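The following block was generated as part of the benchmark described in Methods. Ligand: magnesium ion.
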Amino acid sequence: MKQIYLFDSDGTLYDAEDAKRQFDLFFRTFADHRLGIAPGDFQETRKRLIKKYGILDSSAHCFSREYGLPIAEIYAETYDRIDLASCGVRSDHRLRKHLLSLRATRHVWTNAPRVYVRRVVNALGLAGVFEQCFCLEDTEPYAKPQREAYDAIQRKLPGDAEITLIDDRCKNLETAHALGWRTVLAGSSTEQLPTYVHRRITHLTEMT
Ligand SMILES: [Mg+2]
């Protein structure tokens, strides 16, 4: 059976903690300067808007809708400003070689926007490794772990293939499992594996 591997990006292809910190800082600064939201009120506003618009993981879209701002403007002030090199994101030849050796069609699937995941893939030296990068633009207004997002991705893939999602968040794997996909948890969590996780890896070079 044809195999398709869908690799999450943040926290799976690379350690995203520093990048997330930078994103948060830039977003708070943007909200303060552009929208007059005091840094102390930012988190509360973000939570409220995510609840209002229901776009999981995309505070950028929520702010865009609430304040009528072009999404590109928010991306330019947040994602585009993340300095990947200072976040430790660098070319990984070993990973590239390993991923290319896998006998599966490889795609990325992330809740981040396309402009950002392209930068990440290039910074990791993984250009050409993935056939497609599925992003928020492919599933919005939904995102992982919402079922509708998985349906949108599945419609883009051949119907006769076995799909495996490799992701660092259990919640994202739970929906995948419910759809009959295979699930791989990426990361060093020592928690007991939920039953919907088929396999855990600590590094992507363990993928076979
Ligand atoms: Mg992730």
